[in-house]
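Sequence design from tokenized structure. All designs in this work follow the same two-part layout: the structure record, then the generated sequence. An example of the structure record is given first.
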């Protein structure tokens, strides 16, 4: 019998009740990379809260040199829960060493689109074969602390047991996974701290996680992306209050005011 997590995923992918026929949001090359149908009524929810609609439509115009993509790779855990793959960045990196992150990176000239970037980076960082991942949607872009435009690419890993991680030690030093639903829950694992950027205050969410691989903290951009991805898939807002905009929402607000 399907549990609530599987039902949420099925609803995310196939529910047609609210707005008629489905549409293909994204496709990817490869023998297993067929287009996956995503309901029209969920396309609007892929829009990140705080990003002006007028700017969302022009997001694809952002230059490649300032564009990146990350893979929100979801699979079903042993207890039927939805889980997401995360990494810890190598301490030798010049940018954000030791931070928890989603597999991903900057767009290369040879990348066809954001999905191609996310899949290529995941293969380079953790040895994830793109043929194991079915891309289902691209969320609207986030803005990182170094002002990169970051597009989250949602992908499903249907055969998780076939994935045998191979870590690129130059880029990551750990790989682990977390329950997706935790990014909606107000419990002892979540806290929010207030930060400031050029005189403007913003919220930084943090989630503490204990795993067999060690203890990790998911924070900042990665936390914001997973909060939104979980909200879209489970079709409900977080149980914790969001009194302040996060950094990405702040950047979109400042951009729209110019």
């Amino acid at each position: 019998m399907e549990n609530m997590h599987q039902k949420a995923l099925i609803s995310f992918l196939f529910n047609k009740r609210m707005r008629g026929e489905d549409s293909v949001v994204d496709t990817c090359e490869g023998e297993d990379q067929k287009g996956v149908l995503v309901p029209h009524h969920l396309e609007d929810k892929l829009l990140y809260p705080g990003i002006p609609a007028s700017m969302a439509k022009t997001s694809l115009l952002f230059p490649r040199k300032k564009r990146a993509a990350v893979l929100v790779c979801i699979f079903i855990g042993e207890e039927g829960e939805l889980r997401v793959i995360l990494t810890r960045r190598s301490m030798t990196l010049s940018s954000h060493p030791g931070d928890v992150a989603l597999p991903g990176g900057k767009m290369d000239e040879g990348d066809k689109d954001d999905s191609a970037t996310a899949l290529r980076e995941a293969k380079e960082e953790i040895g994830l074969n793109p043929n194991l991942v079915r891309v289902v949607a691209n969320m609207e872009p986030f803005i990182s602390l170094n002002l990169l435009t970051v597009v989250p690419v949602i992908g499903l890993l249907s055969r998780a047991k076939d994935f045998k991680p191979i870590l690129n030690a130059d880029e990551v030093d750990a790989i682990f996974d977390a329950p997706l639903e935790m990014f909606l829950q107000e419990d002892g694992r979540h806290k929010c701290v207030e930060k400031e950027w050029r005189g403007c205050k913003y919220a930084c969410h943090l989630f503490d996680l204990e795993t067999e691989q060690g203890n990790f903290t998911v924070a900042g951009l990665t936390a914001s992306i997973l909060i939104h991805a979980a909200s879209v898939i489970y079709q409900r807002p977080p149980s914790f209050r969001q009194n302040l905009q996060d950094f990405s929402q702040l950047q979109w607000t400042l951009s729209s005011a110019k």
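Residues 14-45, 52-60 have pLDDT under 50 and may be disordered. We note this feature because it recurs in several other targets discussed in the main text.
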